[in-house]
C-alpha cells in the first residue's frame, strides 16, 4: 500500500507538466488546425531559458520561471507571424513541412548554442525530502506540481472568463463566422500559438530542474504531448488536462509494477487501445454536423 501511494504521488506531480504540454498542443490544433511539430523544441527552449536566467543572468529561481514562459510566448508569436501566417490557407501538408523544418532548426540551434553536454539547473530547495508518513516528496517536485496546477487554472480562466478566450472559442467553432462578427482571427491565431508555446516552455522550465537539460529532450516530450491530445480528444482543453494525468499514471505504474524500461511504452499502449476503441478520444464531445 505504501508503494502504491508513493506511485500515485509521483504520477500526480508528473501529470501536471504533462497536462501543460497537452493543453498547449490541443489549443493550437483545435483553433488553428495546425499540427505543431515545434512543440517539443519549445519545451526545450523553455528549459534552456530557465537555465540561462538562473546561471548566466543570476535571476532568482522563482523569477526565472516567468522569464522562461515569456520567452516561449514571444518565440511562439514570432513563429506564427513569420512562418505560419504567410502560409495561411495553404494545404495541411505544406504547413506540416514548415513546422517540421522549424522544429529541426530550433533543435539544431540549441545544440549549436549550448553543445550536447547536459546542463543542471540549480534549485533553491533543500535536498532532504518531505516525509508524509511512508511517502517522501522532494520540495522541488511539490513546487513543480503547485506551479503546474496554477498555470492550468490560469489558462482555464483565460479561455472561459475573458474576451480573448471568448474570441478563441468562437474561432474554434467557426472562424469565418467569428470574422464576420468582428473578431480579428489573425490576431487570435497569433495569440493562440503564443499561448500554446508558452505552456510548452513552462513545462520544460518546470521539469528542467527536476532532471537535466539537453538539446534532444523535447523529442520524447513532443510524442507524449501528441499522445495526451489523442487521449483527451482534439481541441478539448479539459480532456487534455485529464489526459496528461492519465498518461502519467500509466507511466508511473508501468515503471513500478512492470519494468522501468517500459515506462514510456505503457502510455503508448493506452494510445493504441484508445485509437482502436474510441478514435475521437476519451473525452471528445459529440458534435452535430449539418
Automatic annotation (TrEMBL):
Signal peptide as annotated in the record: none
InterPro entries recorded: ABC_transp_permease, BCAA_transport_permease
Subcellular location field: Cell membrane
Keyword line: Amino-acid transport, Cell membrane, Membrane, Transmembrane, Transmembrane helix, Transport
UniProt entry tagged with the keyword Calcium: no
Membrane topology recorded in Swiss-Prot or TrEMBL: Multi-pass membrane protein
Principal cellular location given in the protein's record: membrane
Keyword Ubl conjugation applies: no
Transmembrane regions: 12-34, 41-59, 65-84, 96-118, 138-159, 188-214, 226-249, 261-277
UniProt superkingdom: Bacteria
Family the UniProt entry places it in: Belongs to the binding-protein-dependent transport system permease family. LivHM subfamily.
PANTHER family recorded: ABC TRANSPORTER PERMEASE PROTEIN (PTHR11795:SF452), BRANCHED-CHAIN AMINO ACID TRANSPORT SYSTEM PERMEASE PROTEIN LIVH (PTHR11795)
Name of this protein: Branched-chain amino acid ABC transporter permease
Organism for this UniProt entry: Methylobacterium komagatae
Amino acid at each position: 500500500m505504501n508503494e502504491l501511494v508513493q506511485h500515485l504521488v509521483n504520477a500526480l506531480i508528473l501529470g501536471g507538466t504533462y497536462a501543460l504540454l497537452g493543453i498547449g498542443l490541443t489549443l493550437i490544433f483545435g483553433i488553428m488546425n495546425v499540427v505543431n511539430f515545434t512543440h517539443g523544441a519549445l519545451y526545450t527552449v523553455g528549459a534552456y531559458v530557465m537555465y540561462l536566467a538562473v546561471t548566466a543572468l543570476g535571476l532568482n529561481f522563482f523569477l526565472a520561471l516567468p522569464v522562461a514562459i515569456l520567452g516561449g510566448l514571444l518565440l511562439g508569436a514570432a513563429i506564427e507571424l513569420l512562418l505560419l501566417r504567410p502560409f495561411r490557407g495553404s494545404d495541411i501538408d505544406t504547413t506540416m513541412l514548415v513546422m517540421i523544418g522549424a522544429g529541426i532548426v530550433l533543435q539544431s540551434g540549441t545544440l549549436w548554442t549550448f553543445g550536447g553536454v547536459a546542463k543542471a539547473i540549480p534549485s533553491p530547495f533543500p535536498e532532504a525530502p518531505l516525509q508524509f508518513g511512508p511517502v517522501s516528496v522532494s520540495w522541488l517536485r511539490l513546487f513543480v506540481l503547485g506551479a503546474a496546477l496554477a498555470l492550468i487554472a490560469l489558462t482555464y480562466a483565460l479561455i472561459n472568463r475573458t474576451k480573448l478566450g471568448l474570441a478563441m472559442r468562437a474561432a474554434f467553432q467557426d472562424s469565418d463566422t467569428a470574422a464576420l462578427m468582428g473578431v480579428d482571427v489573425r490576431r487570435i491565431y497569433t495569440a493562440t500559438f503564443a499561448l500554446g508555446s508558452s505552456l510548452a516552455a513552462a513545462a520544460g522550465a518546470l521539469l528542467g530542474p527536476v532532471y537535466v537539460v539537453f538539446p534532444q529532450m523535447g523529442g520524447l516530450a513532443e510524442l507524449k504531448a501528441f499522445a495526451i491530445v489523442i487521449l483527451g480528444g482534439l481541441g478539448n482543453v479539459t480532456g487534455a488536462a485529464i489526459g496528461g494525468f492519465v498518461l502519467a499514471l500509466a507511466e508511473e505504474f508501468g515503471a513500478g509494477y512492470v519494468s522501468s524500461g517500459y515506462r514510456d511504452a505503457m502510455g503508448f499502449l493506452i494510445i493504441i487501445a484508445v485509437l482502436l476503441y474510441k478514435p475521437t478520444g476519451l473525452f471528445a464531445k459529440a458534435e452535430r454536423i449539418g
